[in-house]
Amino acid sequence: MDRRGLVLICIACILVDRSSSFLTDTGRELEVENFNDQGWSSGGDTTPAESTTQATILGFLRHDGSLDNEVLARESGEEETPEIVDSDLVLSRNFSAEENVNGKSYKFEECPPRMKEYIPCLDNKDAIARLASTEHGEKWERHCPAGKSRLCCIIPPPLGYKRPIRWPKSRDEVWYSNVPHTRLVADKGGQNWIQSQKDKFVFPGGGTQFAHGADQYLDQMAEMVPELAFGERTRVALDIGCGVASWGAYLLSRNVLTLSIAPKDVHENQIQFALERGVPAMVAVLATRRLLYPSQAFDLIHCSRCRINWTRDDGILLAEVNRIMRGGGYFAWAAQPVYKHEPSSLQAWNDMADLAKNLCWKLVAKKGYIAIWQKPVDNSCYLKRAPGTLPPLCDSSDDPDSVWYVPMKACISPLPGNGLGRNITTWPSRLSLPPERLKAVNSDALQAKPEVFLAEQRYWTAIVEGYLRGLGLKKEDIRNVMDMRAGYGGFAAALISQKVDWWVMNVVPKRGVNTLPVIYDRGLIGVAHDWCEAFDTYPRTYDLIHAAGVFMLEKNRCNAAHIILEMDRILRPGGWVLIRESRYMAAELEFLAKSVKWHTRILETESGPYGKDKLLSCQKPLPNF
């Protein structure tokens, strides 16, 4: 096997026919199969080598908006060839190549135990040491290693790691051995963040500003501003400086999907606890660069004692919040200046109120610990401001949806004059209705985008029905899911329509079409990312990683071995990877998948044994201590 061909990742690939039934080559219904630590096991006598799964699938919808039955074959604009570009694998002391009877296989060694919580782009100490300044939080931002400094080994789990407690029980308790850190218990136990009980951490549901519980706190917010209408008007929220994410955890029962963010700072394991609980979260910081979310993404943004100086540098941080808050959306601030009356707190409140006024926010409620502002729905207030008011309006050349390594700007992003982004219907209707911001998606598709949107949804509905019926996935074992190339979010939307209680991080690759605004308009969450670099999350975050066409998209840019290692880093032991790629890539990627010790299986699609695409299904084994 030529090393140039060793690329890509493992993904579970089974297809679904138009009636969503899985058939063997004899026409019998395929029995559900399970993957254990020894490999594949089946409820019947058929072995993986003997059983061929065939299906008929809907025509594939390209992510550039056009339809094509040749799945992903030419999406990058190039003809597919059996030759995959050189991955330029780094052969470090943690990586070796060995010959076997079938050709060449690759073996990655295990990283040292001290790296069990390693986040490559956030733990790059050499790059951080070279920073000219850390005054504005630069050390908490992304600084990715390159060359031989990149991750070339398998991140180990902590000693005693076990399969996470299942959702929804995990909202309230997690295994100590999976996140063995007690600092937050010592620092925040009195505020009801987290407590230690025998072999578990428990989460009473409190926070610094809501020690009596998130439910009571949310009831107060709903009473202060009934127009919030949790689960209807308010569907997508952002919690900045989230602690262990109890605010977002309790909003889930109100049909609000909250993305909880915090930096990897002195409370470095707070996001790790949130993810172990099964709550949507990622590591992120308001420092000098834009957050990786589009304009007008969130219906509600919340900050409770998040220790952020909102008024510094002409309000640059609050201007960033304004960029990602939907027109007519709300900002809730729970902090000492809201309710304390000593001179320093009064000054801080006055400064914050003045800045909010300059942003044209309206103070709609202030009671107890909480103040809530509302963003305007149009630009009329901005145009009436006195000359020289700070922050100014952004230059007309600024793209508010451009976020990858883009510096923050102390300016106000004007709202589109045609109402795009703010004219959103209520949940759950917004999930399935083509949003108006489809008109702004920059793609090569010439056909009507609403039809493309609906075609993608039909496609993923059929595929997801097939995944759930035929892959042997146990719904109760999966909670945290990533879609590495999300398109319009059809995979995540199909899971919701199937009433599967998973949450999905929809990733929109930097190289592809920017569909993030559409994803948020649907009531889903997502993030921009470049798969040539590591993702901003802890090891062992996701139970399932879905990748359709990721390696074809990135084949001329990224090192496939690094993508596989990154997927392994963020995948939980016992978790699944499902990848759909060309038959050439799937076959060669299987070698890389096995090199990180995944159990693998390649499954045929409707194109048959000599067709263009295959499905690669992988499972990461549980540790054997």
SSE layout:
Elements: E1 33-36, E2 39-42, E3 60-61, E4 67-68, E5 95-100, E6 103-108, H1 125-129, E7 173-175, H2 183-188, E8 195-197, E9 200-202, H3 214-224, E10 236-240, H4 246-251, E11 257-262, H5 270-277, E12 281-283, E13 298-304, H6 316-324, E14 325-334, H7 336-339, H8 343-358, E15 362-367, E16 370-374, H9 380-384, H10 429-432, H11 449-470, E17 480-483, H12 490-497, E18 503-509, H13 516-521, E19 526-529, E20 542-548, H14 550-554, H15 560-570, E21 571-582, H16 583-595, E22 599-604, E23 613-619
Helix pairs in contact: 11-12
Biggest sheet: strands side by side, in what order? Answer: 12-11-10-13-14-16-15
Global Rg: 24 Å
DSSP E strands, number? 23
Helix-strand makeup class: alpha/beta
Q: Kindly report the average pLDDT value.
A: 83
Assign an overall shape. globular
Number of helices: 16
> Helicity level, as a percent range?
10-25%
Beta-strand proportion: 15-25%
First-to-last CA distance: 33 Å
Q: Could you provide a short overview of the structure?
A:
The protein has 625 residues and is α/β, with parallel strands linked by helices. It is 22% helix and 20% strand. Helix 11 (449-470) packs across helix 12 (490-497).
Which descriptors would you attach to this protein?
625 residues; alpha/beta; 7-stranded mixed sheet; 23 strands; globular
